[in-house]
């Protein structure tokens, strides 16, 4: 149940330091009550299937155009090689991340897909996810952007979970000079429609906000309430990420101001009080040196961390070593355990949320509590 009214949430930046500290305390209480004092992470390999995209977000360095000479579509052998190496290092999640519908913009994307025998990126993605299932013990998590009902339905049998960052619900970001100008897949309604379609299909889903890209505080609160309303209707949103924008050289937002530490903490605490307590709250540990402060704001999860592959979305930000993250948690009185790409609450309802083969795979990988078996970091 939401413990913070929308009007009160709008006023949080104007609260006194003492009131803001009380908010953080309330967020920690909700976290500890629902999730205990053990934080989780998913041990993954990152599979950047293609870095071509028809969208041109002004903060992104992941996307490469054909003119750059760096545009790429991973081959099946490249996918398989990454997965095999990851499995040998104990990874259980294969995170597919890719640009959205590049074949609709670039001839090079169409040519590379044709070389593999495909016309669309999503058809190729489906078969690469199936390759992971057929050739390894890993379970795919698919981040393919804004998808419609039929597209999500096509991908559901080959993924344990899926995700798409809502980012922000303000139309302002679509205007010329703003972060999402010229990005047809970033319209607020298209993102909301994806969340709703995933709910209708009972797909364990990840979404979240990217803060500091030009939105105001009220739009953040509106976005969190929108996510929560959809979850209240369908019950499928297993985790929400609050991610801080980092300015990158060579982008249209290279000189934009980044969110402050206090801004990030306040947004996290607001999320914890607005969202249903059953929704996991996550913040990436590699985007902020003082990420241990996130524990003060009520997070219960660090997201996917790879011992093998870098964060291709933020390649300049190395993952913390899992052992170091465990020490960070321990200093704050918390434990750290590995989870799977699907959270225990959804694993416990496999007939509703999981394809039969995926459920069987996850059952073999899970311990009695629904987290990952063979824990290395307790």
TrEMBL record:
Which PANTHER family does the record match to this protein? 7,8-DIDEMETHYL-8-HYDROXY-5-DEAZARIBOFLAVIN SYNTHASE, FO SYNTHASE (COFH)
Q: What are the entry keywords?
A: 4Fe-4S, Iron, Iron-sulfur, Lyase, Metal-binding, S-adenosyl-L-methionine
Which SUPFAM superfamilies would you find in this protein's record?
A: Radical SAM enzymes (SSF102114)
HAMAP family attached to this UniProt entry: FO_synth_sub1
SMART domains for this protein:
Elp3
Q: What Enzyme Commission number does this protein have?
A: 4.3.1.32
Which is one GO molecular function term here? 7,8-didemethyl-8-hydroxy-5-deazariboflavin synthase activity
Organism taxonomic ancestry: Bacteria, Pseudomonadati, Pseudomonadota, Gammaproteobacteria, Vibrionales
- Pfam short name (any one): Radical_SAM
Main EC class the enzyme belongs to:
lyase
Superkingdom, according to UniProt? Bacteria
- Catalysed reactions, semicolon-separated: 5-amino-5-(4-hydroxybenzyl)-6-(D-ribitylimino)-5,6-dihydrouracil + S-adenosyl-L-methionine = 7,8-didemethyl-8-hydroxy-5-deazariboflavin + 5'-deoxyadenosine + L-methionine + NH4(+) + H(+)
> Which pathway is recorded for this entry?
Cofactor biosynthesis; coenzyme F0 biosynthesis
Give start and end of each Radical SAM core domain.
39-284
Q: Which cofactor does it need?
A: [4Fe-4S] cluster
Q: Is Flavoprotein among this UniProt entry's keywords?
A: no
Q: What InterPro entries does the annotation carry? A: Aldolase_TIM, CofG_family, Elp3/MiaA/NifB-like_rSAM, F420, rSAM, rSAM_sf
Q: What is this protein called?
A: 7,8-didemethyl-8-hydroxy-5-deazariboflavin synthase
Asked if the keyword Iron-sulfur belongs to this entry, the reply reads yes
